[in-house]
Amino acid sequence: MINLHAKLQLNKINTASKSWFQKIQWAQVYLAVVGAIHRVIVEQPRKWTATRQQQADLPVSQIKQLPLQAGDILYTPSSESTYYAGHMGILGEDGKVYHVHPYGPVFSDSVEWYVKRFYDQDRFIVFRPQSAEAGQAAALWAQEHYQQVQAYRLNTNLDQIERSYCSKFIYQAYLFTSGINVWPRPLKLGNHGYIYPFRIMRSKHLKIVGSFYRG
Known about the structure:
Largest sheet: 7 strands, mixed
Mean pLDDT: 85
Radius of gyration: 24 Å
Helix content: 40-55%
Strand order of the largest sheet: 1-11-6-2-3-4-5
């Protein structure tokens, strides 16, 4: 009876092991197939688009030849270094880039140091407000309030400064000083919502004055 019981237990263990082994194999097949589809549908077109865009971009080493102005927004589209969300900072009157970052929660970087935070092949699109006065006011606000940011959070309260993220901070810099909403149709209800970085591309209050890439 003991031997028979032991054999039954061993058979159960072997069956369970085979089942888990089969699940692992199927998981590997699934991941391989999904990965291949993702590379074909998402990654390859993204690389082609980036290659075409870079033909019109300048090396980021030339970014200070623009020249930059207070209130300019430096935007990096979705990439691995931005956790596929995009990132941006605003140029202060002192020439530093102020930006809310997960590792900060906020930084004031020289332009040269700012671009070094990103990976090779990343793009930098410089947006400038239509109103120079609005840009200067937003730049000064960023300088005076960046240290109020206490934590990097996707906080929905668009009036709160203490918990913020990159695009929300710049949104506040313009809205709180000049009443200009540089984000078209932000997803919000009352004073709550999200300010998505990529929507900056559609802003009627901003214009693109240069695009660069890090080689």
